[in-house]
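WARN retry 2 of 3 for item q-0093 after timeout on previous attempt; input resubmitted unchanged.
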Amino acid sequence: MNLAPLRSLVREVNFSAHGVDATVAIPDGAPVATRIIWLTPITEQRPAGSEFGRSEAIRSMAIRRDALPAVPRGSTIAVTEHLLSSPTLWTVDGMEAVFSDHQRVIVVPYDEQQA
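OK item q-0093 returned
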């Protein structure tokens, strides 16, 4: 039994219901309008034995692969967060996972000084 049509339907429903509009600009590429899903932030605990440390939530998002097959590190993403009216810029800091229909990237707030 071929489940590809069902998987495609589930992806469409998820990105339509939970996704938000975003513009992704890969280095040396044209900006692409797509939809992303903000994933639940993860907070890593301090390594054992460390006296000092800071715990910050790691932010990640799911991006459809049909619009962007790859989102390399250094790409910028303009997206509006929950309850905000204007988009904020984020920079892709790493890859969390790659699936057949979407990829999960780790993002950090855009830093103009490093651009």
